[in-house]
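SAMPLE LOG
Freezer: B-3
Tube label: C17
Construct: single chain, 273 aa
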Amino acid sequence: MRYGVATFITDEGITPAPLGRALEERGFGSLFLAEHTHIPASRESPWPGGADLPRIYYRTLDPFIALTTVAAVTGNLRLGTGIALVIQRDPIILAKELASLDLVSGGRAVLGVGAGWNREEMRNHGTEPKTRMALLRERVLAMKEIWTNDEAEFHGEFVDFDPIFSWPKPVQRPHPPILIGGSGPTTLDRVLEYGDGWMPIYGRGTDALAEQIKELRQRAGRHVPVSIYMTPAKPEVIAELAEIGVDELLFGLPTEPEKETLLRLDRMAALLA
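STRUCTURE (predicted):
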């Protein structure tokens, strides 16, 4: 099993470079960063985590800039988004951003994707919440075309462009892994159609998760990688998830200043050791 960290990097916590170095020095294999471009001041969408939305949601750094900084000071750490809000991003620009990250990191980029929960936020980007899943699908498929073809084109309901040239191409071929976030009733369909792995949030119960993993791999006819997002760093949780065939645990790392973060990482590393 692989072990990594999922966190929000903000202007109030540890900065990207020391975090990346600390993770690699302690033997962690990956860093996944959350993103929100903004949070509308007047908000109707309930936060899935509770009543009050933490301030980290509206203070996040751009994940690709932060991950590029981490790439410059590390040599092996996998660099992922957890998750990139594809429905709020132009797919041609996002394809170039991820390919650039994969190039400068020597092939270490991972794209975790999802459609998000904040309807006011997505509307500010011109996205209609009711069609966001269809938009997510087309944007991911369009990026795949850009990454894998010298002359790429895509013609869909939401994404439509004639042949284009766009470089760089990713180092990883055919493209960096795409992990599909979420755990709704149609999530596994999305994993099977245009994903390379599944990245659900921890907390649905081990039995339900085990059944979904079994179903996913049976339907695929192969071993589909599963990474659990925001996993608690507890021995019993690690053992349970290993037992049901999870491939990677992404431990939830609170956003704190550098000193506190390093102490917390020391405790996590001791647990894994």
